[in-house]
Design brief:
- The chain has 180 residues and is of the alpha+beta class.
- It folds into two domains: 2-127, no CATH class; 133-177, no CATH class.
- Helix content is 21%, strand content 37%.
- It contains three helices and 16 strands.
- The strands form five sheets. The protein has a four-stranded antiparallel beta sheet with strand order 4-2-5-8, with no helix packed on it.
- A hairpin with a 2-residue loop joins strand 6 and strand 7 (76-79).
- Helix 1 runs antiparallel to helix 2.
- The longest helix has 16 residues, at 112-127.
- It is globular, with a radius of gyration of 18 Å.
Length: 180
């Protein structure tokens, strides 16, 4: 089993664009709204990310996996969050800060179809990067590095930062957009 992760800052507008790009590449793709539902009920699958209400959304390609396993725990049904789906979490905005999130996929690297699907989804996300980030020491305000390449920053998130929001940061490190 292989694992792939990508950290990102996405706004609502970025989610709309990401959904469009994903559906262009995979018209059959569905978005599961959350990871649990009522016993006897069905998981909520939506046509786009923006149709989902949950902060945790799971990308499901039914042409790869006709069914996604689930199991009952404490009176609720829980759907698979690995292998059969790619986990996408929404970037919350609070206290004038947009928090980063991470898209995660685990897949059978021996399966060409699973690897190809996963690689394409991650390429689509990376294609949405609109700017470069730099890392600044939160104490001294001196640059740590001028090029942080581990994050994707959507165009909508970059506009929010330009209009006054901050990017969430790690302890002791502040992330900034390198050039607006």
């Amino acid at each position: 089993m292989a694992v792939k992760r990508q950290s990102y800052f996405f706004s609502h507008d970025d989610e709309v664009e990401f959904s469009k790009k994903l559906l262009k590449a995979f018209p059959q793709l569905l978005f599961r709204d959350g990871d649990r539902w009522s016993v006897g009920g069905e998981p909520l699958y939506k046509e786009t990310i923006q149709d989902c209400k949950s902060s945790g959304i799971y990308l499901w390609n039914p042409s790869l996996f006709p069914a996604v396993p689930s199991k009952q725990i404490d009176g609720k049904m829980f759907g698979a969050i690995t292998r059969y789906v790619i986990q996408y979490d929404r970037c919350p905005i609070k206290d004038k800060t947009i928090d980063w999130r991470q898209m995660t996929a685990s897949f059978d690297s021996a399966s060409p179809a699973e690897k190809q699907f996963t690689d394409k989804v991650f390429r689509i996300m990376k294609s949405m990067n609109s700017t470069k980030l730099r890392a600044i020491c939160a104490v001294s305000a001196l640059p740590i590095t001028e090029k942080v390449s581990s994050f994707v920053v959507g165009a909508g998130a970059a506009v929010l930062v330009k209009n006054g929001l901050n990017l969430s940061s790690a302890i002791g490190v502040r992330l900034e957009i390198a050039a607006l």
